[in-house]
C-alpha cells in the first residue's frame, strides 16, 4: 500500500468535493458547524492512555456472534476503532481507508476491530458497503465506548437536517438515546496493555490515519 496516496486526508479532500456536489449548501453548513462545536466542547476525549490496561468486553459482530477482546488478544495485537455509524460519510471513509491497509496491519501481527453503537444489521451494512474484511462490532448503549472515549448526545439540528435529506438516524440504533462515541483508535498488546491511543478531536471529519497505526506496529 502506498500510504501517501491512500492517506485519509487525500480521501477526505475527495469526499468533501463529493459532499459539496451532493448536499445543499445549507445542510453541509449545519453539519460543519456541528463538527466545529464538538471540537470546541470536547477538548479532552480519551478515557484511557498508553500504558493503561484495556478493559475486557464481549460484543456481537455483524453476524450476531459474540466477540471477546481477551480471546482476540490471544491471537495477537488488536486495533480498536470507535466510530459513529453507517450514515456518517467520514466513518465510511475511515473504515475503507483502514481496509486498504488491512493486509499490512495483519502482516504486522494485528487484528482490526471497529465498534459503534449500531445494531448488528447496520454493522453488516457498513461491512458489506465498504467490503470490510475485519470485525465490526455492535456496542448497544455505548457501554464499551464509555470506557475508552467520550460519548455525547447528538444534537437535534443535525438529526433534523438528516431527516430532511431522507436519512433516518434513529433506525440505525436499538435505543433512542441518540448518543454517539467520539471517534478514537487504540492499539492493544497481547497482554492487554495499550500501546497507542489517539483521537483527532471532537471534529468527526478528522480521523487517525492508518500510517500511524502501521508505524506503531513496526516499533
UniProtKB/TrEMBL annotation:
Reaction(s) this enzyme catalyzes, per UniProt: a hydroperoxide + [thioredoxin]-dithiol = an alcohol + [thioredoxin]-disulfide + H2O
The organism's place on the tree of life at top rank: Bacteria
One matching Pfam family: AhpC-TSA
Broad class of enzyme this protein falls into: oxidoreductase
Presence of keyword Disulfide bond: yes
Domain Thioredoxin: 48-219
Leader sequence segment: none
EC identifiers of the protein: 1.11.1.24
Keywords, sorted A to Z: Antioxidant, Disulfide bond, Oxidoreductase, Peroxidase, Redox-active center
Keyword Transferase part of the UniProt annotation: no
InterPro entries: AhpC/TSA, Peroxiredoxin_BCP/PrxQ, Thioredoxin-like_sf, Thioredoxin_domain
Family listed: Belongs to the peroxiredoxin family. BCP/PrxQ subfamily.
Annotated function: Thiol-specific peroxidase that catalyzes the reduction of hydrogen peroxide and organic hydroperoxides to water and alcohols, respectively. Plays a role in cell protection against oxidative stress by detoxifying peroxides and as sensor of hydrogen peroxide-mediated signaling events.
PANTHER family on file: SLL1159 PROTEIN, THIOREDOXIN-DEPENDENT PEROXIDE REDUCTASE
Full protein name: thioredoxin-dependent peroxiredoxin
UniProt source species: Dokdonia ponticola
Native organism taxonomy: Bacteria, Pseudomonadati, Bacteroidota, Flavobacteriia, Flavobacteriales
Amino acid at each position: 500500500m502506498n500510504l501517501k496516496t491512500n492517506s485519509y486526508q487525500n480521501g477526505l479532500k475527495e469526499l468533501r468535493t463529493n459532499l459539496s456536489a451532493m448536499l445543499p449548501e445549507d445542510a453541509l453548513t449545519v453539519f460543519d458547524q456541528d463538527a466545529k462545536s464538538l471540537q470546541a466542547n470536547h477538548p479532552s476525549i480519551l478515557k484511557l492512555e498508553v500504558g493503561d490496561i484495556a478493559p475486557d468486553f464481549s460484543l456481537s459482530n455483524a453476524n450476531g456472534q459474540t466477540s471477546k477482546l481477551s480471546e482476540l488478544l490471544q491471537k495477537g495485537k488488536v486495533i480498536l476503532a470507535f466510530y459513529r455509524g453507517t450514515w456518517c460519510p467520514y466513518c465510511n471513509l475511515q473504515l475503507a481507508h483502514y481496509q486498504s491497509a488491512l493486509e499490512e496491519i495483519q502482516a504486522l501481527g494485528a487484528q482490526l476491530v471497529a465498534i459503534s453503537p449500531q445494531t448488528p444489521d447496520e454493522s453488516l451494512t457498513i461491512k458489506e458497503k465498504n467490503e470490510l474484511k475485519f470485525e465490526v462490532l455492535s456496542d448497544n448503549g455505548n457501554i464499551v465506548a464509555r470506557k475508552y472515549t467520550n460519548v455525547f448526545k447528538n444534537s437535534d439540528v443535525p438529526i433534523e437536517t438528516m431527516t430532511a435529506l431522507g436519512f433516518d438516524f434513529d433506525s440505525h440504533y436499538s435505543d433512542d438515546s441518540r448518543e454517539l462515541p467520539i471517534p478514537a483508535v487504540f492499539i492493544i498488546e497481547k497482554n492487554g496493555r495499550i500501546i497507542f491511543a489517539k483521537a483527532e478531536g471532537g471534529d468527526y471529519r478528522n480521523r487517525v490515519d492508518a500510517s500511524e497505526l502501521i508505524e506503531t506496529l513496526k516499533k
